[in-house]
Amino acid sequence: MVDLADGFLDLREERHAADYDQLADFSKTSVLNLVDTARAAVRSLSVLQAEGSQALARFLVLISLKTNIR
User: Fold this and answer.
1) φ and ψ at 26, to 5 degrees?
2) How many CB atoms sit inside 10 A of residue 33's CB?
3) pLDDT class for 70, splitting at 50, 70, 90?
4) Which residues, other chains included, contact 58 with Cβ-Cβ below 8 Å and sequence gap of 6+?
5) What's the pLDDT at 69?
6) Distance CA 38, CA 24 (A)
7) What average pLDDT is seen over the chain?
8) Is residue 17 packed enough to be buried (19+ CB in 10 Å), middle (13-18) or exposed (0-12)?
9) CA dihedral sign, ordered 53, 66, 38, 10
């Protein structure tokens, strides 16, 4: 669960930099690392979902409340 949350946070920060930081520099290596981070997050999400994780359910509720997803 912690790895999943960390991955989401890292990816969100990088997306924000890509959108708003005019000086952000994204090398091929760093972008490939971000792709690996995204893939790992999706794998973690799949495992937690398959297990019926209560922690995952709480995490998704918190995300929906924070982002106003309905």
Assistant:
1) -115, 100
2) 13
3) low
4) none
5) 61
6) 19
7) 88
8) middle
9) negative
